[in-house]
Amino acid sequence: MRGHSCKFCLFAAIVMFCTLFAGGLSVAAYAQDSNDTVRGFTIDQRFQGSSSSFGQILKLNTNLSYELGRHVGIDAGVPFYFVNDSPSGTTSSSGFRSGVGNVYTSLRLSFKGALNYTSTITGTAPTGDRDKGLSTGRATVDWNNAVQKVIAHRVAPYANLGLANTISDTPFFIRPFTSTGLIGHIEAGTTVSISRLLYVGASGYSVLPSGKQTIVSKIVEIHTEPQPPMSLPANSRGRGVGLTKPRPDRVFETTREVVGTADLASDHGGSSWIGIGPIRGMDLTVGYSRSKRYGLNTVFWGIGKRFGPFGSRPR
User: Fold this and answer.
1) Closest of 258, 249, 147 to residue 207, by C-alpha
2) Quick check: helix, strand or coil at residue 281?
3) Residue 128 burial (10 A CB sphere; 0-12, 13-18, 19+)
4) How far apart are alpha carbons 100 and 123 in whole angstroms?
5) How many other CB atoms are there within 10 angstroms of residue 156's CB atom?
6) For strand 38-52 and strand 55-67, is the pairing parallel, antiparallel, or unpaired?
7) Which domains does the chain have, with CATH numbers?
8) pLDDT tens across 126-140, in order?
């Protein structure tokens, strides 16, 4: 546990530095925006899916973005989930279940140049159905800092650093659970443009939790019969309670809700993908993600359509 704490403190210090750096730049950005900015909004519709041994999870997300200026933007949206758990899992039957997830809003601060930087704070309201695993019943906040360097208009290495009280979905992986608990998240990777419309990418990620964690499964229904907790092995380091399979890492496959220590939410792995677009505001992504901690292989895809911008005008 001490090693996790040291990593988390270092991570928090890095993110704090990024914030102070962004705060200094925002003063200059405000002065520039006050003289010449463009305002307008766009609508992004995205349908994505993840498929693995536990079944399929689909997500339809409608996002409304409004640009306050050249460097500041606001997003708001609502996700809708479709869950089809595998008949070989722990639930009594398979079939699609659906429901609204947590509505969200985000504030973006971005700067483009030799090094692109974006800082985003996203907050959600607990509008999702807790019984379906679409919410933990609590509001969440996720603060992410992203940097990217474009080299020769083709290669774009990037890194994301963030702090949150939940483990959020990513463009590569719709998580089979929702969570509550303090975590740090890190991702680093690169994309390479093969042609004007074709690109490939790869990245690695790590989730660094701290303190008490709550996991609410999307793939175990609330009416599943309760099962007695199993005895944890001596080297389990307290990965939660109510575990019913020899592998305690994937508690979301056996138990609807689990409360445990930091190791319960720890995760690391990698992803690779190929993308097409944008073509008339549309893009398509297909890829593969591997969670080393969960021993889970996931095939993912996503298709998006952007409408707008609408109402753009000089300030």
Assistant:
1) 249
2) coil
3) buried
4) 16
5) 18
6) antiparallel
7) 2-314 (2.40.160.40)
8) 999 998 889 999 999
Residues forming a β-bridge with 15: none
The residues, ordered by sequence, that sit 6+ positions from 2 with a Cβ below 8 Å of its Cβ are: none
Q: What is the DSSP string of 233-262?
A: PTTS----SS--SS-GGGGGGT-SEEEE-G
Residue 10 C-alpha from the chain's centroid: 21
4 phi, psi to nearest 5 deg: -60, -40
Residue with tokens 């998240």: 185
For the chain, the distance separating the N- and C-terminal CA atoms, rounded to the nearest angstrom, is 52
Eight-class DSSP state of 292: T
Cβ contacts of residue 119 below 8 Å, gap of 6+?
Answer: 18, 19, 22, 108, 109, 110, 143, 144, 145, 146
Q: Using DSSP bridges, classify how beta strands 282-291 and 104-111 pair: parallel, antiparallel or unpaired.
A: unpaired
Place of tokens 């004007």: 196
| Intervals of the chain under pLDDT 50 | 1-2, 5, 10, 13-14, 17, 19-32, 34-35, 88-92, 223-246, 314-315
CA–CA separation, 163 vs 146, rounded Å? 12
The type of residue at 34 is S
**pLDDT-above-70 percentage for the chain:** 75
